[in-house]
Amino acid sequence: MTITNYLVLAAILFTIGAVGVLVRRNAIVVFMCIELMLNSVNLTLITFARSTGTVEGQVIALFVMVVAAAEVVIGLAIIMSIYRTRRSASVDDVNLLKY
Amino acid sequence: MGAIEAPDLSYAALAPLLFVFGAACVGVLVEAFTPRSVRHPVQVTIALVGTIGAFVATLLLAGTEEVTAAGALAVDGPALFLQGTIAILGALSVLLFSERALDPARSAFVAAAAVPAGSVRDRELATSERVQTEVYPLATFAIGGMMLFTAANDLLLMFVALEVLSLPLYLLSGLARRRRLLSQEAAVKYFLLGAFASAFFLYGLALVYGATGSVRLSDVRVAVVTEGGSALMVIGLGLLVVGLMFKASVAPFHSWTPDVYQGAPTAVTAFMAAATKVAAFGAVLRLLYVAFGTADWTWRPLVYALAIASMVVGAVLGLTQTDVKRMLAYSSIAHAGFLLTGVIGLGPDGTGYGLAATMFYLVTYGLTTLGAFGLLTLVRDGDGEATHLSQWAGLAQRSPLVAALMSFFLLALAGIPLTSGFTGKFAVFRAAIEAGAWPLVVTALVASAIAAFFYLRVVVLMYFSDPAPDGPTVGVPGLPTTIVLAVTAAATLVLGVLPGAVLELAESAAVFVG
User: What are the TM regions of this chain, as residue ranges (chain A) (predicted)?
Assistant: First the structure.
């Protein structure tokens, strides 16, 4: 297995995540797609850490996990608060603000 | 393997950051240990001490040029200049947050954010005088993140600072007391799109790391010089720019801006519009200049296109708006384009006037925008702020002072001479022309003319229309808002008439280290 395979896999995962954010309608699923993007970045970082022979990439991956955890807390709090009012987590239903 | 060496930390150079983050941590403790009755004055005092202390610290540090924290933080002219700007904008925003005279319920923030909007308990709390004091530590953390953002000399630290400034802002935009559904919707949109953009930033970071073997900006610069730009690096840079431009609300990454600016509590909108823009452009300048300054062919066409897109989208879509807050949001998108005109004015290797011009523009834009949004909080009807354009008709007859002040801020945003908006625009356009980007400046002038139309439309509406019979009332602000309006109006005038001192300061500060 060459390094390139891992990078391609990460790029595919990142693309799946990005497309998911754009096409899925449930806020929780959109959020999961963002998490998928972050994890594909972690895979890229660790692959590059291996190929360049530095440890920075691995350390950055740890930072990304911590920040992602903080983001989950804030994100779920916001999605919960809107769900409790509207009984829906669909991003099509949050349409009061436009034009 | 030897012992791990502790990184060198220059605490003196970090003083502004330590002040703000210290105040934020103390604020969290106060929230836990102080009785509710005294929390509000205590929290406001702590937030003001933190931000004003940080501002004074940046003044005392003026002239410092050093790289500290094992190379991750650069304390230099641009960092200190923009940190000082953010600190003062932050202090003024905290004053806007603390206004208690305007809303009948004595605060613009929801009493209990966890209570579902529209429930029985929510209606009970809507009229109670209970205030939310968590907003002050949250805002202080956001200010700290912004100040860190402008000094980050390392892509990882830049990412962490980006999140430290964003996460509190997502929450703050969902905390309006009135029109809670709109506010929560703004928070959801801001959060999902903001997290999406930070994922792009992060992927860009990973690719630049892979191409250069480091995330330190100075090492990236060395790698760019020795190895030239690889495709991987250029793609990485593009993704980093996408992440940053999102925060700076540059078209085509602006779609969140109008919705979030409209839905968020107006004081928070003022804070976001003014301070976030300063922080985001600080990071853009440092990234493009320190890391990729020697390979400007990689970013110059991209920034050129984004500047034109942003000016055109902001000016043209601003014309169609019927809500004052949304109109100011499109104005902020157009101004992001004007700021990018200054970024184009960055010459190769530290020459050129672009850096100083952009920093000066950020000061003028930030103060004027803060004043304009602050003024919006005064015009109210039974359901909070009256932001629909039709409600502003004939406002000059109801309150000549508010109409005059609003006209002044709008003229400054339009860039009319004798206001700070004119001197700021003049500076960035001059920088861009010196860099040979005259087509960009022509576009900017046309966009300014189009944008002037929608600013002047509000002025005409206020002075030459008859007031609606059931029109809004103009509230009498308390001391905090009065201070904010006085400071921002004075700054808008002084920077327009006598900009020399601040321009010179910006020019002398316009040297990056690292």
Answer: 6-23, 28-48, 60-83
Task: List beta partners, residue B75.
Answer: B66
The reply to whether A97 falls in a domain is no
| Extended beta strands in B354-494, E state | 379-381, 384-385, 473-474
Residue A95 lies in a domain: no
Per-domain boundaries in chain B: 15-509
Number of domains in chain A: 1
CATH number of the domain to which A77 belongs: 1.10.287.3510
Nearest Cα residue to B30 out of B39, B19, B18: B39
| Per-residue DSSP letter, B272 | I
* pTM score over 0.90: yes
* Domain extent at residue A29: 4-88
Distance from CA of A1 to the nearest CA of B (A): 18
Q: Provide the Cα torsion B268, B271, B272, B277; round to 10°.
A: 180
Query: How high is the ipTM of this complex?
Result: 0.95
Contacts of B160 in chain A (CB under 8 A): 63, 67
Each of the 514 residues of chain B gets a pLDDT tens digit; together they read: 567 777 778 888 899 999 999 999 999 999 999 998 899 999 999 999 999 999 999 999 988 888 888 888 999 999 999 999 999 999 999 999 999 888 888 888 888 888 888 888 888 887 787 888 999 999 999 999 999 999 999 999 999 999 999 999 999 999 988 888 889 999 999 999 999 999 999 999 999 999 998 899 999 999 888 887 788 999 999 999 999 999 999 989 999 999 999 999 999 999 999 999 999 999 999 999 888 888 878 888 999 999 999 999 999 999 999 999 999 999 999 999 999 999 988 876 656 688 999 999 999 999 999 999 999 999 988 778 888 888 888 888 888 999 999 999 999 999 999 999 999 999 999 999 988 889 999 999 999 999 999 999 999 999 998 887 777 888 888 999 999 999 999 999 999 999 989 989 988 888 888 6
Q: Do B159 and A37 touch (CB under 8 A)?
A: no
